[in-house]
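#structure-requests
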Amino acid sequence: MIDAAILSNRIITPNGIKKAIVLIEQGKIAAITNELPQGNFPIEDIGDNVLMAGIVDPHVHINEPGRTDWEGFDTATKAALAGGITSLVEMPLNASPVTTTVKAFEEKINAAKGKLHTNCGFWGGIIPGNEKEIEPLIEKARLNDTVGQGVLGFKAFLTHSGIDEFPNVTEEDLRKAMPIIAKHNLPLLVHCELSDQSLHSPLTINRYNDYLQSRPKNWEDNAIALMIRLCEEFNCRTHIVHLSSADSIEQIVKAKQKGLPITVETAQHYLYFIAEQIKDGSTEFKCAPPIREKENNTKLWQALKEGIIDFVATDHSPAPSEMKETASGDFMKAWGGIASLQFALPVLWTAAQKNNGSLSDVAKWLCEKPALLPSLKSKGKIEVGYDADFVIWNPEEKFTGTAKDILHKHKLTPYLNEELSGVVKQTWLKGTKVYDEQKFLHLNKGTVL
């Protein structure tokens, strides 16, 4: 029995954009058709608004438990829902305790109860000495065996993470962890920067270009070279998070040509902003690796369009405004992270239009491809049998982001006052309309992935 139908003149499917009707049954896409069947069910006619699979963001820092003054499940998943994100995967650091043990994982799951307004999965963390926790984190049943199994994969840093409880790993640590992760065919996500200890940065940096020079491209390039080598040796699914250095594109191409199980993401801020436009002291732009120059931006866009970079994820990493050192403008003291979760779609679409990206490209980069990393097999496409998770949006409508509209806990973001294209109208979870025209119709409808 059909539960609902959505009519649109622009439905983004894997086979292109079409005018059609999507029929929903028991939370799944039952059919994509041109004719309405007989029956008594609600019909949503969205006209020329775009119907796209719900966005999947596998790189989000929510920071609960322990640092809920930075963010939290309630605020983060509301912001995600308002931005059309129907599934996200939360990172293992910035929470306290960090998710490097089963005990810490249980605390995080408990902290999320009653606060998931969109679907949420979890990455575990790899730090020196916790290799014995890897399999328990994978196998740990959640919520009394009612919601699947443990973490969806693991995250590691090759440089200081900014969180002392989450120290970076060495090649020796990875050699212990990667065979275990590979045995379970899960991904290892890696922050790729190998810092050069001979490069001494000043204690205070206010000029953006000085900050940029303090984290050069070769830090990334050397780290990615290491991960490609280990990926080949252990045949472990290896994912490079937030690629910033276009100088690594060539070695990534060669690794993919070899058939290595390596994937790559970049972030909206590397595609939207360029270093030449960032003013000195503008610490809201601080992230690591840093936002680089125009030439680099152009090469990242080319790699994304060619499929060398697999997808785009926000790396939403908020912090209280005082931690961003807006008063001092000191890039060395400021927390490195950009709050962006709610703007994932309009930021990418705005930049994509300037770089000859299409609506189908955006669906691939934000929905289809990121769903593959955590193996969310029923997410990311408008296709029969997939979950009826949708974002309905108007790609022609523009808006200017203001603090009062932001649902993240903290409003400081480099996207404030930017004119963006692409307004989210509705978000659907498992065939239920949960967000409509800036109003939440149903909360706590998210599930643990």
